[in-house]
Design goal:
The longest helix is centred in the middle third of the chain and has 28 residues. By secondary structure, the chain is mainly α.
Length: 663
């Protein structure tokens, strides 16, 4: 340095006090050790499978968002389900995997926070939440869910897994999106076009739910995708675990409410009722009907209300972060449910002015969450702008979700009446309960608007109208217990005597068991001539148990595709026709499953598959082959090798023989 050179600015390190330097070094060492341990465990495979899932749950729940375990589960669940999918919205990132990076950062941040304190043992104690008797309902909900969804977790082969996935049409589309993210490292809308002027089929579909499934799969099985059998099994397990996760978050949110937190005898039947909704009731269609993204949106609407209701103040940073995650999660899963999520989230704004306590941290978090939420909403609009239909909400195609109009009325009108009738001694709670009435009001208003638009376009209510009604039914039936719980706040926290405690516990248990039968008989094993289960989830469970034993013959498509992939013989423009003698599978569904399993599902390929005439196929499978071959000069039809000769004989066109391949 010459004499004329300007003096260097004072280094930040030199401006720190000796104590700050010591704490900074300590926190960095703690962060490096904790992050290094997690990274080593992930790279070595020790933190995969059930161990990896357990460690991830412990790390997330160690974040001191609340002293109470139930509310910590609720806030962590909203944050994870809402914000984690954003990891997959950008371009592909090669390396150890996004979930691994997130775990390393989280472990390092927690360790640094502990190391920065003069009394690190005090902060270590803060990592462990306070638990009460009511928190036992959380692991019970997990165990019940694992038992109810056992067939999805017990599948051992690709054929078994695919046989279960054949239970609902849309599993093919959801698996395709998950597989694309697994193999390409980003959601489909962020991927480059496949080339040749083609477009990916699902580039106009928000994929927050699918990114979450990919995160679970990566957590359990690593960042690098396995073979077809491994991916099918991992997908079915992740889909089942997602159902359990959504139910647990809702149950935890209810257990965090003050009236239930100190009254386990009241919380038990509430948890039984809510668990029944998600596992065997109207929300069981999450996995049985292949609408897991929709059910996740319903759960996030409920969670947003449960975070906002007991929030200590309007701008509590953790509450804002959780509510923002819930709203973003709804936008990226089933955007119409924002009609319920927004009024639920707005409850946090209702306390009196004296509770609007501004602080620098609250202002920063609120501003960041608001900006990111707005950007996410813009991203969803861009994705939905790629939809090819001019008015997708009124399309007449699609199935009819199993909405129960009677339960819709009970939930919507019951919640509205309960919110207006229940009184509470605390002004803030009273205002927020009144505000909760906006959820059913908005649900009814949007239902009427959709019905009018669809009837005007098609002279009948169609898919999205029915599905939104199902969402209102699920959300309001769950939230109905909230004002009821606050109405029961006058009950004593503890029984006055041992005899009273015994009677209260017995009555709570009997009520809990009875509430599990609200949506139909749920018990199995009475035989076809006895008391047969009638609840949707229970009947589906029985069918799935049968599927594991007697796998549908069409499920061998997984084995046929796996063989093609092992030998590298997957044609670039191939379509599958399952030309069996009984012609049992839907030809369009089978063609779409082939596209999903091979990662070749473009919008143009979907048009070809959808053009297959099912009635003609039932009469003569060769008609489907002819439709495919006529779509383009390089199209190839793949058929079961044992039926290829019969197909060629029916076609009676030797010139096409090379384009019909047996697999």
């Amino acid at each position: 340095m010459t004499a004329s050179s300007p003096a260097l600015p004072v280094v930040g390190w030199e401006r720190l006090s000796a104590d700050s330097r010591r704490r900074l070094v300590t926190s960095l060492v703690y962060a490096a050790v904790a992050g290094g341990v997690v990274l080593a465990g992930r790279l070595s495979g020790l933190l995969e499978g059930g161990v990896g899932l357990g460690v991830a749950v412990l790390l997330v729940l160690a974040v001191p968002t609340s002293r109470e375990l139930s509310r910590r589960v609720l806030i962590a669940g909203c944050a994870v389900l809402g914000w984690v999918p954003l990891l997959w919205l950008g371009p592909p990132v090669p390396g150890v995997g996004r979930v691994t990076i997130a775990l390393v950062v989280l472990a390092g941040a927690l360790a640094a926070w502990v190391g920065w304190s003069d009394r690190p043992w005090v902060r270590v104690q803060q990592l462990v939440p306070r638990m009460r008797l009511v928190d036992a309902l959380i692991p019970i909900t997990v165990v019940v869910g694992l038992l109810q969804l056992a067939p999805w977790l017990r599948a051992k082969t690709a054929a078994q897994s695919l046989g279960l996935l054949f239970s609902a049409w849309d599993h093919s589309a959801h698996y395709a999106m998950v597989s694309m993210i697994r193999h390409h490292g980003a959601t489909v809308d962020a991927l480059p076009e496949p080339g040749g002027g083609f477009r990916w089929q699902f580039e106009s579909y928000p994929q927050g739910f699918h990114a979450l499934l990919v995160s679970i799969m990566e957590l359990q099985h690593g960042a690098r995708p396995g073979d077809l059998q491994a991916e099918l099994l991992a997908y079915s397990q992740a889909a089942a675990l997602m159902v359990v996760l959504t139910a647990v978050i809702v149950v935890a949110g209810l257990c965090a409410l003050a009236p239930l937190r100190t009254r386990p005898a009241v919380a038990l039947p509430v948890a039984a009722y809510v668990t029944t909704i998600f596992y065997v009731g109207p929300a069981a269609t999450a996995i049985q009907g292949a609408i897991g993204n929709f059910t996740l949106a319903c759960a996030l609407c409920i969670a947003a209300a449960l975070v906002a209701l007991p929030a200590p103040r309007a701008l509590d940073p953790w509450s804002v972060l959780a509510i923002g995650g819930a709203v973003v999660g709804v936008a990226f899963t089933w955007v119409l449910m924002l009609a319920l999520a927004v009024p639920a989230a707005a409850l946090v704004l209702l306390p009196p002015r004296r509770r609007w306590r501004w602080s620098r941290s609250a202002a920063i978090v609120t501003a960041v969450v608001a900006v990111v939420t707005a950007l996410c909403a813009w991203r969803v609009l861009v994705i939905l702008g790629r939809v090819r239909e001019s008015d997708p909400l009124t399309i007449p195609s699609g199935g009819v979700p199993p909405v129960n109009l009677g339960l819709y009325v009970v939930g919507a009108l019951g919640l509205l009446a309960a919110c207006l009738l229940v009184r509470h001694r605390t002004r803030t709670v009273q205002q927020r309960l009144r505000g909760l009435a906006l959820v059913p009001v908005c649900g009814i208003a949007v239902t009427i608007g959709l019905a009018v638009a669809q009837i005007d376009a098609n002279y009948r209510l169609s898919y999205y109208g029915y599905k939104f009604m199902l969402g209102v039914e699920i959300v309001t039936l769950v939230l109905l217990v909230v004002p009821i719980a606050y109405a029961l706040a006058r009950l004593p926290v503890r029984p006055r005597s041992a005899g009273t405690a015994l009677r209260t516990g017995a009555a709570s248990l009997v009520l809990a068991v009875s509430l599990t039968q609200v949506f139909g008989f749920t018990l199995l094993g009475f035989g076809p001539r006895g008391l047969v289960a009638s609840a949707p989830g229970a009947t589906a469970y029985a069918a799935q148990q049968t599927t594991l034993v007697v796998t549908p013959s069409v499920a061998d498509l997984a084995d046929r595709v796996a063989e093609l992939q092992r030998t590298g013989r997957v044609p670039a423009n191939g379509f599958y026709v399952d030309a069996r003698t009984d012609r049992s599978p839907d030809p369009i569904l089978m063609a779409q499953w082939y596209l999903a399993l091979t990662g070749t599902w473009t919008a143009e390929a979907n048009d070809v598959a959808s053009a297959i005439d099912e009635k003609a196929y039932r009469r003569q499978p060769a008609s489907a082959v002819l439709t495919i071959l006529a779509s383009s000069s390089d199209a190839v039809a793949l058929v079961p090798r044992e039926y290829r000769a019969a197909i060629l004989a029916d076609l009676d066109m030797p010139i096409l023989e090379d384009r019909v391949i047996g697999v």
